[in-house]
Each structure stands twice: as structure tokens, then as C-alpha cells.
Design goal:
The protein is an alpha/beta fold. The protein contains 7 helices and 7 strands. It has one domain: 3-Layer(aba) Sandwich (Rossmann fold). The protein has a 7-stranded parallel sheet, with helices on both faces.
């Protein structure tokens, strides 16, 4: 039986890399993103490498859209075995200058969206005899930087949600894990006004790593592929850092936001 993987935030960056990697492992892909055209490009890339994929326009904050996504996945592929909650946004602003609406937006996408997807995908996984959910959190769940209050709160909440979901869903043979990357070379990291700021950020993240590595989307995708495999069957309710050693260093490092 072909496994079916739902990947949110699949239009670019980590989400696209995860979709392509899981497809190479034999999964049919449901590529979900609010960026409709780029999501379709991801699905087409999957098909070009010989896989099966559909692209769906989904705002994960909207419960009706999430329910419709699950229903469409069932119509197309008959079930869901893997869910990767990757949809996320980043807000850079001092805490005192973060509006309530902006805070709600970040929490809505990064945390509420994962909750809604788990809520509606888990019963479908139960019908298949179980499944695996990977929530893409962040090392900012544990230690963060200035001007990331909303983002850090959302990722810390996602780690807590992962642990609670693992307890609630374990009886259905559903594993739930959080993967917590450090900086990854994605469009989100490069969304800065000046090229020199982007270069400085990349250099300083590499310096913060004892192996001098800035993670690539494929590094995260490979970790996801392992986490959803039988080789990782003993892992649930954990938050796994994927940070090129950044969190092992107790020195204070000036890494720009």
C-alpha cells in the first residue's frame, strides 16, 4: 500500500524539500500551501520525478479549509499515513511593538494550524491502523533571540502540543514528534531588505555551528524521512534538535535575527 503524506507549507523551502524527499521514498504527496501556484509547482516536481501528488490551497488557520483538505486527500488517495506540519511564518519585532493582530497571526499559522491539522488527520490515520506526525518546530522553542517573541512562543507551544498529542494519540498507534531546526537556508531566512544583511546572517549562523554548517532544506527533509520510517518507531513525544551543534555552545554569540 502506498503511503500518503500531507505536507503543509509545501510551496517552497523546507516544505518543498520534504515533499520531494518523501515522494522519492514512495509516498503520494498532498502538497498544501496558501501560495497556490508555488504549491502546484511542488506537486509538478513530484510528478516529474515519477511520484504522485496533488496540490491544495489551504489556510491552516481555517478549520473548514483543513477539513476540506482532509476530505480531498481521502478522495484522491484513500487515506493519510504521514502529516508534516511545516506551515509557518516569522515576525521580527520587539515585544512592545508587536501588535495583538500580528501575534495572533503567527500563533494562528504556526500553532493553531498544526493543532487543526492533527485534530482532523488523526482520525483518518486511525482508520489506516496508525501513522506519524512530524511538527516542524525550532530551536527557538528552547532559546531565542531578541525581536522574536511571537515566533518563539509559537514554536515553544508547538513542542508542548507535540507532547500532549503523543499522549492522546498513542492508543491509535500514531507517533507525534517535533523536529527543531536552527536556521535553514530558505526564502524565510533571506527575507531581508539588503543583500549584505543576508550575507552577514548566513556567515554568523555558520560561525555559531561547531561544524560550520548552515542547514539546507534537504537536511530537514532527510531527518523527516527518517522520523517517519520504521527505524524511528520508538520515538514519540520528543522534540529533536537539528541545529548543526549551535545549542551545544554556551558562549554568547551575536547572531542577527
Amino acid at each position: 500500500m502506498t503511503k500518503v503524506a500531507v505536507v503543509t507549507g509545501a510551496a517552497r523551502g523546507i516544505g518543498r524539500a520534504v515533499a520531494l524527499r518523501l515522494a522519492r521514498g514512495g509516498c503520494a504527496i498532498v502538497a498544501c500551501d496558501i501560495r497556490t501556484e508555488e504549491g502546484r509547482e511542488t506537486a509538478e516536481l513530484v510528478r516529474q520525478q515519477g511520484g504522485q501528488a496533488i496540490a491544495l490551497s489551504v489556510d491552516v488557520r481555517d478549520e473548514e479549509q483543513v477539513k476540506a483538505m482532509v476530505a480531498q486527500a481521502l478522495r484522491e488517495f484513500g487515506g493519510i499515513d504521514i502529516l508534516v506540519n511545516n506551515a509557518g511564518i516569522l515576525l521580527r519585532a520587539p515585544l512592545t511593538e508587536t501588535s495583538a493582530d500580528d501575534f495572533d497571526l503567527v500563533i494562528g499559522v504556526n500553532l493553531k494550524g498544526a493543532f487543526l491539522c492533527m485534530k482532523h488527520v488523526a482520525p483518518v490515520m486511525r482508520e489506516r491502523g496508525g501513522g506519524v506526525i512530524v511538527n516542524i518546530a525550532s530551536i527557538h522553542a528552547f532559546a531565542t533571540l531578541p525581536h522574536l517573541a511571537a515566533y518563539a512562543a509559537s514554536k515553544a507551544g508547538l513542542v508542548g502540543l507535540t507532547k500532549a498529542a503523543a499522549l492522546d494519540l498513542g492508543a491509535w498507534n500514531i507517533r507525534v514528534v517535533a523536529l527543531c531546526p536552527s536556521a535553514v537556508d530558505t526564502p524565510m531566512l533571506r527575507e531581508k531588505p539588503r543583500t549584505e544583511e543576508i550575507s552577514a546572517t548566513i556567515i554568523r549562523w555558520k560561525k555559531a555551528s561547531p561544524i560550520g554548517l548552515l542547514l539546507q532544506p534537504e537536511d530537514v527533509a532527510n531527518a523527516v524521512a527518517w522520523l517517519v520510517s520504521e527505524e524511528a518507531r520508538g520515538l514519540t513525544g520528543i522534540a529533536l534538535p537539528l541545529d548543526a551543534g549551535v545549542s551545544a555552545d554556551l558562549q554568547v554569540r551575536k547572531i542577527p535575527v
